[in-house]
Design goal:
The protein has 4 helices and 4 strands. It is of the alpha+beta class and 151 residues long. It has a single domain, classed as Aminopeptidase (3-Layer(aba) Sandwich), CATH 3.40.630.30. α3 links the parallel β3 and β4. It is globular, with a radius of gyration of 16 Å.
């Protein structure tokens, strides 16, 4: 498990994920790193956030974070019946890809979420990540979005 001393690594990995989507530098907020540090800190305090590092030959090859899901609506079902965990920021450095590291990190996160009583794990998959998550047992679920046109 990653410690707060490794938060800088987690922040860097999260930003690299957004970079991999082709996010232009001018689209990032000026305090992007501070926002991520804050999110990680409050997640540890309020949502049992835990992060995992993959170490290969003494190098940090990747990371993943997970936590109790923060529902956007009032939860009325008892937690033992419905408690969602959320996995986010699964990242593997390019030099270490295609070695099963993302799957191992995902499985670590799933095991952690089960250990804290979650009944379901949720992850939003990139195109590159979807086959990994399917291998881990995830299934597609319905989510609908409406993108507003720029005016």
């Amino acid at each position: 498990m990653a410690t707060p001393d490794e938060d800088e690594v987690l922040v860097g990995h999260y930003l690299k994920i957004w970079d991999s989507y082709g996010t232009p530098p001018e689209h990032y907020s000026s305090d992007a790193a501070a926002r991520i540090f804050s999110f990680i800190g409050s997640g540890r305090e309020e949502r049992r956030l835990t992060s995992f590092l993959a170490i290969v030959d003494g190098e940090i090859a990747g990371s993943a974070s997970c936590q109790l899901h923060q529902s956007p609506f009032p939860e009325v079902i008892r937690p033992e019946q419905r408690l969602f965990g959320y996995i986010w920021s699964v990242y593997v450095a390019e030099a270490f890809r295609r070695r099963g590291i993302a799957l191992a990190l995902t499985n670590k996160a799933v095991d952690y979420l089960k250990s804290i009583g979650c009944t379901t794990a949720v992850i939003h998959a990139s195109d590159a990540g979807e086959p990994v998550y399917r291998t881990a047992g995830f299934e597609l679920a319905k989510e609908m979005r409406l993108k507003f046109p720029e005016e």
